[in-house]
Design brief:
- The chain is mostly helical and 325 residues long.
- The protein contains 13 helices and no strands.
- It is elongated and about 95 Å long.
- It is a multi-pass membrane protein.
Length: 325
Amino acid sequence: MYSIGQRTIKTAIGSGISLLIAEALHLQNYSTAAVVTLLSIQNTKRRSFIVAIQRFVASVIAMLIGWMMFEFLSYTPLTVVIYFLLTIPLLVTLKLQEGIIPSSVIVLQIYVSSDKSISFLLNQVEILAVGILIALIMNTYMPSIEKKMIESQKKIEQNFKMLLLGIALKMKGKDEDSQNDLIDETKMLLHTAKTLAYRQVENSFIKSNLYYINYFEMRERQFEIISNQIIPLLKKVALNYPHSKIIAEFFEDTGVYLKEKSTGIELLGEFSHMMNDFRKMPLPESRDEFETRASLMMIVYELEKVISLKMEFYSENQTILEKLN
């Protein structure tokens, strides 16, 4: 379905405003101001500010180089070729490559006009200033994405619960269905949510709240353990083994209690109690039993890593989490 995004709307409106202002100021080549605005609208406030500085500085440097080259070498296509051979590597070296395109437009206008006057150079600077300033003003509006992040967070927590409860069912021998679709969906959700979290930070000039970045990265590490370690180990486990049912119940408890605001301490206590019970059980009597128990212990210790990641996250973000309660 055809749709117009908020960046497209800002670009269109901003370009029109730049055009109107530049024309009202009676600037030569005033339409270039709209082009500069079009190039300067970015996805985040911080990125817009950085790009604006880079483009303005790059354009001024390139304009001065171009003006001097045209003065001393003449206004010919060969001079333009030499200009590009010198200027592009210079701007890249100075990490001002964002300014290559707008500066090229400005310099080519000097070439076409063959105007040597200082007033024309100032005219070009004014065009840059109008285009970049309007882009910055338009980018001061960035719709809040916190609601989307919270929605993603809730969905991810629900998926984690379903994954852990699904593992518990498998260990009880009650469910043989594959969780591949749920794994793929969760992986996609984590990627999208983390992208949103980084964008939120990029939209803040004053204070960077890294809470959501830390949260989604913690969930991503937990997900990697579950999908890459725990689930593959299930294939090596005899589901009718007595330990399986006990561990399955622990997975159920983990799925229920491993939420955003939980400390994880209760689960770690339950883990220690379960391990003590295992130590009191008789030793394996056969090789198959030994291998099965070894695989089960590997699963349990991987799950302990999942819980420890949550405890570490709670410890590092305790102040914020207490405010949410």
